[in-house]
Every structure is written in structure tokens, then in C-alpha cells.
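Take a minute with the sequence and C-alpha cells given here and flag any C-alpha cell that looks odd. Thanks in advance.
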Amino acid sequence: MMLQTMNDTMGEVGGSVELKRKLDDGTLVPAQEGEKKAADLSAKMRQSAEEVLGLEFDKKVAWAGMRKAAGNKLFQGQRYQEAMDIYMTALVAISNDPKDVVESDEKISLPILLNLSMCALNLGNAGKAVAFCNHALSLESGLGKGSHKVYFRRGKGRIMTGDYKAAKEDFKKSLELCEAAAAAVEGGVEGLEGERKAIQKELQKLQKNMQAAKVNKKKVKAAMTTAVERGNVIEISKVEADRAPAFKRRVSKFNSARKGGERVGEGKGEGEGEGKGKGKGEGKGEGEGDGWVGLLLDYVCCRRRRERVKQA
């Protein structure tokens, strides 16, 4: 981090720097970790923007290429967060000139966003991975919509979030684009064949898991119905509990209701309401956590729109 670098330097003379946040009442409090990261990245972005200011487009592309290479080296060393920061700075080199949009997206925006999505996946941050892929799909040139890699990586991110139906559609679209790209080249492309097999493997695995979940759901429903009819306390195995955590919660509430003399209908209704509320809360939390990503992408990737409004 830039702040750490400053402290390392000042430490030689006994000094240090601490980032603080000013509250509405004027009180200064130590910044939280997320705020420190956002401030550090913002400083890096400003520094990078100054480096490319005034450069011709071809030199911006070359500069972005060097940043990408540096990020790739960090990625290969499994230093994914550091690689992500480097990739982010490369996005300041995108061109606002309409005549350079396609080349800018092809050589800078799309490959960098794809690399960012891979970093996010390796860090286990599905929300960021999906966000990067969504932005790639919204590129003005339309190149993102023709990339099988974008859909494939978004599909993997969606699996991590539990959105299996949407992930399946992404994998199907990815496979379609990959096969079309291979067919466009006489004799096919060996690299694309490997990617096609990888997509097929993920799609087949997902379909198998979705089918298993469907069967398990029917078993869960049947077990609940039988238990309610008999008025028995439900017992489930560890395997069933691992496969269906939601079912485990319902069983717990059902058993509590039975032991406490409550009506089963009331216990079940309470469980469903709590589950719905919890899901909503988790979704909100993830969105807030990824706020800096959206802020950065708006900063570096929406300048074209703002510049054209000014020119008009």
C-alpha cells in the first residue's frame, strides 16, 4: 500500500502517517481498513492518470501493456489483490476518442476486466467477479458481448453466489460463442478446443448438481409432509443437513415448535420470514462492500460519456 510505503520511508527518521476520517461533528477517527484501501487505490489512480496525461494513444496502449504485464507477474505468484490493484491502474489509459474506442476496448478495457474478474474469483469475491464481467459486457464497442471468456467467468462467479440458473445460461452462451469462434477458423484452434472442453465440463457439472438439488428438494418436501401428518419430531442425517442447510433450519424450528407445544404452521412461517430477511440483508452487505469497485469503474470507464456531453 502507498500509505505503508510512506510509513516505511518516514520510519527511518522516526515519523509516521495515519489516515483518519472526519465525522459530521468534526471529530477525527482512525479510518477503517476498507477506507484505507479505497484511499490508497484512489492515490494510485491519480498518479497513473498523471503518467498517461498527454500521451498519444499508441503510447497509452504500450503503457497499459506494461501495467498488465506487471499484474500478470503478481497473478502468477498468486498475489491476487496486488495484481488487481495494478490492473485497476491500467484502466486509466482507455481512450475517450470515438475513433480509438474499438482498439482501446480490445487492447485495454476487455483484457484488463477479464484479468480483474480472475483475480476476484481466486480471492473468493464473487460479487466483484460478476461486476467486472458485467462491465465488460457493457463496453461501448460491444466486444465484451462477443467474448466467451466474459460469460464463462461470470458464470463461475454466479455459481459462487448460488445463482445456478443464471450461471447455466452464462455457460451455455459461453459455449456457443467459443464454438462459433473455433468454427470461424479453418481447422479450429487448439487453445479454443481446450476452453470449449472446460466450459462443457463446468456446464455438465452444474446441470448434475442442479438435478441433484431438485431431487433433494422433493425428498425434503416429502419428509416435511410426512412429519407434519404424523406429528413426529424429524431426524436428518449429517449428509442431508450438509446438502440442504435451509432444510436443516426448517427442521430445527419444526422440532422446537413440537417440543414447545406451538403450532407447526406458526413455526414454519417464522422460519420462512427469517430466511427471506436474512437473504436481503446479505445482498445489501455485499453491495456496500463492493462500492469502491463501482466508484473506480465509474471513474475510469465512464469518462467517454462525460467527455462527449461536455463536447456537445
In short: The chain has two domains: 34-210, 213-276. Residues 236 and 248 are 8 Å apart (CA to CA). The first strand starts at residue 20 and ends at 22.
